[in-house]
Structures are given as structure tokens and as C-alpha cells.
């Protein structure tokens, strides 16, 4: 008899903290395997009984005792569509005492409607950007992202209502500018300031035919954005290369940007007190408006442009990369490779190259070349 039912909405690491420590846990995947095996044995028994002229009387089998049944988000895919749709009868084959479900799909949760009073719902409280975080960005940003002073000013202004807790919806930002100038890195940095792992989806990675089920939710076994959002750890969300998908998909984001709700056939994610950052390679705000279309463009709380990096900024980034790379070397390697020589030999290569993206590789190659030269001379 079910004594305790818990629905947990949020990331796995925190769900695990709510699970009872003192009891043996059984997962729904384990039960699904067990149940399949039983079913096969049962069929086999019936067949063999028929062939042996129905001699043995059917013995009432005892139900397996399951003190604590747990379902992690990703495990709903391991049980069949029918077990999911009649979940109560599925678990009724067993003697389940307590049940812990992480992010149950809507039609599963619905089956517990009549037991409403007995279901305990826990929602994960996301850490969000606060004033301390805003001050930290103000202090650190020029060292983290070099040569984007204007971005810092616009970003702090845009983030203020979120940090001051004045928003009832997510804060939605559009970054535009050439590649390799610090757009994704800025999102990653805001993620670091807030804490927890940033939620990032790179939209260029999806092909059109797999993007539709991902956005709108297909079979319960497939990946979906709503499900992934429910499992996210962070209140900082990065939709990288947001300019890549077909404009057909834009309307999927209206409700998320307006109200912080993202819903598909199976799942419903709540995204409040969050910052959603969409990066694009548009050259100007005007181009972004034209290509994204007015209805979507109007939904951004701020549209922030990143400049191409000038020679001074590139030089500073190179200097920093040299310092970081040399720090990682051993004592004797540092006698062969000096930060100063490294920087001076690379600076002429920098401006002709592929900007900042190539910098780390240039530094790595130059270090290997120098160390190899030394080793061959010995
Ligand atoms: N302005 C910058 N200051 C410091 N590092 C930068 C800057 N721009 C880019 N980088 C570095 O270059 C790499 C690519 O930057 P990224 O932010 O991903 O570029 P994009 O603007 O295309 O999103 C990262 O490793 C990042 O650390
Ligand atoms: Mg990027």
C-alpha cells in the first residue's frame, strides 16, 4: 500500500538529496526489467501447463516488496508507453511503500489526481543573480572579457531588474556580433557568477528534422527541450547560435520569453528568475530585427552588440593566454620557455590569424616547438 508519494521538480543532484538514506532504493528501470522477465516466465508456465495437461494448479504469486521506488527523469524512457499511461496498475504489481518521482511527465502525474492530498510536491529553488553577483560582474568583467567595455555597461543595466528581483518573467537577452569576440564566454561567465552548471544548447547542432520533436515533444522516449529545462541545474540559460534554426521554430519561444513557461506534449518547465541569453552572429540590431522578425525581436529585454576585437584587445588576450600557459609548465620547462619571449614571437602572427579563437592553439604550438627544439639539441 502506497504510504508516501513525492513529486520532485528540478535537477537530479538535488533530487538525490531528498531520497531516504536508510532504505533500499529500487528504480523504475529495474522494475521494468523484472516485470518483463516475470511476464515471460508466466507465459512459459502457461504454455508448459497446457502441454502437461493442466496438472499444476496456479499458485498465487506473492507481490514483490519494494520499500522505496524511485524514478529519475531519464528513466521514463525505459518503461513502455502503456506502462507509463497506466502507471498505477504497473506499480500495483508490486508492494510499493514509498514513491519518489523526478519530473514526472504530465500524463503520469495526472494519474495521481485522485490521491492529490497524499502527493507531496517539491520544487527546486534555483539560485539567481543577486546584487552581490552584479557587483562582482562590475569588478571582474573587464579582466574576464577583454575589450568589450560597452557590453559591460549595457549588460549591468539589463541585469539590474533581475538582481533587484523586480521581474515576474525571465530576463531575455540577445547578443549579436562577429564570432570569437566573447559572446558565449560572457554567458558562461554569468553562469559562473550565479553558480551551478550553465544550461547550454547549441542550436547549430540540430538538424531541422530532429529539432521539431525536440522543441514540441514527440514520443516520451525522445529528448525534449521542456524535459531538459526541467532537469537544468542553473538559472542561466544559453541558447547558442540562436540565428541558425529555421524561423518556423521561432514561435516555440514566445511563451518561454513572455512568461517563463515551456510546455510540450509530455512536460512543462517553469523558468522564473532566470536569464536566457541568445547569441547570434548578426552584424547589427537592425539585421537581427529583420532576420528574426519583429514579434520575436520585440520579446528581448535587451539587445547587446559585441565589437570586433581591436589590436590592443587581441594583444591583451594573447598576453593572458601566454601567462596561463606558462603557469602550467614545470619548473625546468619554464627555464626554456619564457612568457615574454613567447608573447613577442607570437604577436606578429596574431593579427593575420583567425582572431582570438586561434590564440590558444598558437600559444600551445609555440611552446611545443620551443621545448622540442631544446630536447633535440641535447
Ligand atoms: N573579448 C574576449 N576576451 C577574452 N577572451 C575572449 C574574448 N573573446 C573571445 N575570447 C576567447 O575566445 C574563445 C571563443 O570565444 P566565444 O565567447 O565563444 O566567442 P563568440 O563571440 O563567437 O561566442 C573563448 O575561449 C574565449 O575565452
Ligand atoms: Mg559563441
TrEMBL record:
Gene Ontology cellular component annotations, sorted alphabetically: cytoplasm
Residue ranges constituting the AAA+ ATPase domain according to the UniProt record: 169-310
GO molecular function: ATP binding; ATP hydrolysis activity
Coiled coil: none
One biological process term in Gene Ontology: cellular response to heat
Lineage: Bacteria, Thermotogati, Synergistota, Synergistia, Synergistales
Record keyword Zinc-finger present: no
Pfam family, one: AAA_2
SUPFAM superfamilies assigned to the protein according to its UniProt record, in alphabetical order: P-loop containing nucleoside triphosphate hydrolases
Keywords carried by this UniProt record: ATP-binding, Nucleotide-binding
Name of the protein: AAA+ ATPase domain-containing protein
Amino acid at each position: 500500500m502506497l504510504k508516501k508519494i513525492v513529486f520532485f521538480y528540478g535537477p537530479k543532484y538535488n533530487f538525490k538529496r531528498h531520497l531516504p538514506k536508510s532504505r533500499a532504493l529500487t528504480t523504475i528501470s529495474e522494475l521494468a526489467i523484472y516485470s518483463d522477465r516475470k511476464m515471460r516466465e508466466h507465459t512459459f508456465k502457461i504454455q508448459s501447463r497446457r502441454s502437461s495437461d493442466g496438472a499444476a494448479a496456479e499458485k498465487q504469486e506473492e507481490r514483490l516488496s519494494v520499500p522505496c521506488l524511485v524514478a529519475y527523469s531519464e528513466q521514463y524512457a525505459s518503461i513502455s508507453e502503456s506502462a507509463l499511461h497506466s502507471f498505477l496498475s504497473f506499480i500495483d504489481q508490486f508492494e510499493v511503500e514509498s514513491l519518489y518521482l523526478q519530473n514526472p511527465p504530465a500524463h503520469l502525474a495526472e494519474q495521481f489526481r485522485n490521491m492529490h492530498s497524499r502527493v507531496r510536491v517539491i520544487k527546486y529553488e534555483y539560485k539567481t543573480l543577486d546584487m552581490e553577483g552584479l557587483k562582482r560582474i562590475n569588478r571582474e568583467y573587464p579582466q574576464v572579457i577583454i575589450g568589450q567595455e560597452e557590453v559591460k555597461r549595457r549588460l549591468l543595466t539589463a541585469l539590474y531588474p533581475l538582481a533587484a528581483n523586480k521581474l515576474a518573467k525571465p530576463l531575455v537577452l540577445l547578443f549579436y556580433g562577429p564570432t570569437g569576440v566573447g559572446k558565449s564566454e560572457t554567458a558562461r561567465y554569468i553562469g559562473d557568477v550565479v553558480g551551478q552548471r550553465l544550461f547550454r544548447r547549441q542550436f547549430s547542432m540540430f538538424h531541422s528534422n530532429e529539432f521539431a520533436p525536440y522543441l514540441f515533444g514527440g514520443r516520451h522516449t525522445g529528448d525534449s527541450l521542456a524535459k531538459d529545462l526541467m532537469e537544468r541545474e542553473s538559472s542561466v540559460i544559453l541558447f547558442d547560435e540562436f540565428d541558425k534554426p529555421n524561423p518556423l521554430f521561432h514561435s516555440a519561444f514566445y511563451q518561454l520569453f513572455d512568461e517563463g513557461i515551456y510546455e510540450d506534449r509530455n512536460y512543462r518547465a517553469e523558468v522564473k528568475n532566470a536569464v536566457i541569453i541568445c547569441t547570434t552572429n548578426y552584424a547589427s540590431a537592425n539585421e537581427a530585427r529583420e532576420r528574426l522578425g519583429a514579434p520575436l525581436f520585440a520579446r528581448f529585454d535587451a539587445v547587446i552588440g559585441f565589437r570586433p576585437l581591436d589590436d590592443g584587445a587581441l594583444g591583451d588576450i594573447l598576453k593572458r593566454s601566454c601567462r596561463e600557459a606558462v603557469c602550467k609548465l614545470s619548473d625546468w620547462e619554464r627555464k626554456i620557455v619564457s612568457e615574454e619571449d613567447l608573447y613577442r614571437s607570437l604577436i606578429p602572427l596574431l593579427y593575420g590569424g583567425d582572431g582570438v579563437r586561434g590564440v590558444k592553439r598558437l600559444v600551445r604550438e609555440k611552446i611545443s616547438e620551443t621545448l622540442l627544439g631544446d630536447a633535440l639539441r641535447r
